[in-house]
Write a structure and sequence with these properties.
Blueprint: H1 2-77, H2 87-94, H3 104-112, H4 118-126, H5 136-161, H6 168-194, H7 211-224, H8 230-242, H9 247-255, H10 260-284, H11 288-314, H12 328-338
């Protein structure tokens, strides 16, 4: 019996000793695991910091790339060197496109040759188509044909210029602007000549283009995009021309007189519009084929509504309709032109033009 008790005691002691050993080993293992966890956490923190640093670096590089692109585009488009993009740059770029400048006499003779006698054409050139007795329905028809021709021409080129991607966009964006607004300004000149306006002086090159011409075209662009009061300004200009107001007074009205605030307001709006269009177009057209399709489609859809707005104003003025009756607002602007009123306008006083959205047309 005593022997059995001794054996049981020894077994118990062995179990107790084994338990202690196991506990010690578990404790050691626990410390090792704990140390490993701390190391893992530290490594995770280090990795997180590295990722964060990499992300910040990527964002910084992306911002730098965008800033560089912005500067390059502004430099490419800023024709008058004032560090800004506005309608003056747009017009100067567009007038560099071959064929955009329209010779009034050659144009009228060519377009009227199929419909009028030589005597009638001579009178239309020397005075106006309306004074020459050319039917207004014929003029409207010829204007519609002109809009259609220019619209089809600009749309095909827009799709082609929308094709390149990446860095090539910096080179094609000025070309894209030139062809779109170039054809728009060519259409504007043709419509003005059909409806009785005298020839615009586009004989200069670059920044040497006549300021009066640039501001006249700016007013036309304002009408095309629905700028408030731009149509009033053009109708008042038409009355001044129809009644023989001196050219010097017309120049004063456009450069520092009653029409000048409208011109500058339109220019300010176009600056914001062009910047927005350029950069949305830049990233859109980085996808070659899609960019081309979208570019051509949008050009085709918006070109005609813009031209139709200008046609609507031009077809009913004192130059195109001798019986036209001016509104009270138009009379006020006309009187300001006639009397040579000068308006001092500070840049900070100019308000951005209020322009409605253009309704696109499919056909």
């Amino acid at each position: 019996m005593a022997g059995i008790k001794d054996k049981m005691k020894k077994v118990a002691e062995a179990v107790e000793k084994g338990s202690k050993v196991a506990a010690e080993k578990a404790k050691v293992a626990g410390k090792a695991i704990g140390a490993g966890s701390v190391t893992a956490v530290e490594k995770a923190k280090s990795a997180g910091k590295a990722i964060g640093t990499g992300s910040k670096t990527a964002v910084t590089k992306t911002k730098a790339a965008v800033d560089t692109t912005h500067d390059a585009l502004v430099k490419a488009i800023d024709q008058d060197g004032n560090g800004m993009i506005d309608s003056t740059d747009l017009i100067l770029i567009a007038l560099k496109v071959p064929g955009v400048k329209v010779n009034r006499e050659k144009f009228l003779r060519k377009e009227l040759a199929r419909h009028c006698s030589e005597d009638v054409i001579d009178k239309a050139v020397n005075e106006t188509p309306a004074i020459a007795g050319i039917d207004s329905d014929l003029i409207d028809k010829l204007v519609d044909e002109t809009i259609k021709f220019e619209r089809n021409a600009v749309s095909g080129i827009s799709a082609a210029l929308g094709m390149p991607g990446g860095a090539a966009m910096v080179a094609t964006i000025p070309a894209d602007i030139a062809q779109y607004y170039g054809y728009m300004l060519r259409a504007a000149q043709k419509m003005m000549y059909f409806y009785g306006f005298p020839e615009l002086d586009t004989s200069g090159d670059g920044v040497n283009i006549d300021t009066e011409t640039i501001n006249s075209l700016t007013v036309c662009l304002g009408i095309m995009y629905g700028v408030a009061n731009a149509n009033i300004a053009l109708k008042a200009m038409a009355k001044a021309l129809a009644t023989g107001v001196e050219k010097q007074l017309m120049r004063r009205a456009l450069t520092k007189g009653t029409i000048y605030p409208i011109v500058k307001s339109v220019a300010k709006w176009f600056g914001k519009r062009m910047t927005k269009e350029i950069f949305s177009g830049f990233f859109k057209k980085a996808i070659p084929v899609v960019g081309g399709i979208v570019g051509g489609g949008l050009t085709y859809a918006t070109f005609k509504p813009c031209c139709n707005r200008l046609k609507k104003t031009l077809c009913d003025t004192s130059l195109s309709n001798p019986q036209y009756q001016m509104t009270e607002e138009e009379e006020k602007v006309y009187e300001a032109i006639r009397t040579g009123e000068v308006i001092d306008v500070w840049p900070e006083e100019l308000t951005e033009a209020d322009v409605p959205e253009i309704e696109e047309e499919d056909e």
